Amino acid sequence: MITSDLTDEQERLSNTVRDFADTVVASAAYEYDTKRELPYDIIAHMGEMGLFGLPFPLEYGGQGKDYFSLCLAVEQLGRVDQSIAVTLEAGVGLGAMPVFRSGTAAQKDEWLPMLAQGKALAGFGLTEAEAGSDAAGTQTTAELVGETWLINGTKQFITNSGTKITRLVTITAVTGESTRANGSVKKELTAILVPSGTPGFVVEPGYDKVGWHTSDTHPLTLTNVSVPAANLLGERGRGFANFIQTLDEGRVAFAALCTGAAQGCLEEAVRYAKTRNVFGRNIGSNQHIAFTIARMQARVHASRLAYYDAARKLVTGRPFKLEASLAKMIGSEAAMDNARAATQIFGGYGFLNENPVARHYRDSKILEIGEGTTEVQLMIIARELGFDTL
Fold it and tell me: Cys staple from 251: which of 230, 261, 328, 379, with CB 3.0 to 4.6 Å?
């Protein structure tokens, strides 16, 4: 693990979360994965540790650190349980961060303290059946009637949207349309805060997913949902720009999660290869196994360097869109490749759900899809290089 470039404070944070992940999260991962339940006791413990408040100012109950610190915590959790890691990553990056970046003073005062302390979770309602990578396909509408937004539509694949501590979901909706010079229609997208329990806001039953069994993920239905006009998040019509910023930042923390997953598979493979004996010697003495693990180490190293670079550009105010997409793509492929390699090294034992590498094998595929597919990352990278691609 690369630590030489970290400050003493960052190393202490990383080591503290690593110890917590190994002693608390890892020991409960199989149980909660089997139950398909979010472990609220572990989430509460994470809140007490200040993990949900890492990048937020002290005035809002945060820790006064930065986004890089959040990434370090997410990486360590991702080593042992991706579901717990994404609960933190999405809770901060997609749930609380939009309020912090775009909210009014009143909105920040109302929502950030509970979110930063891990006493509440928030979701980010962007994806729809016809709108994911193509946000212009958004069908959810919001009409301003007097001093009230009237919202109708559906959302899908929304993380942290249906837990017993979810208090808020930010919804992107079409609030108007305009006609371009070429005759095409441009949708005005706006972000609006919808508190949980608002009449007409229904959290549908959770998905039966291949992996991330502990992570909370639901489709949402909004039928004549009324919220105050003051629940507008940011400027009207700036929803597209706001969620692009949210996704760019989120991809950096997501890349940290990917790195953690790849690291977790590497650690399990190294341990097993040194202790599993076949034909009188450990399997790691076979060149093929040793070289496979060496490639796993190379993937982890590249993935970590990529997200470190993106995170440092983010926190120092430099452009980081290209680096975020590179980190997300490199990290997700590293996680998937390492999960496949580790499962093969374990053989039959790697096919048992109680084995951490089996969970990583199931969990890691979504890393190449969530928060922008690999194809979307390639499109962004190509555009940053000057190619006008679709």
Answer: 328
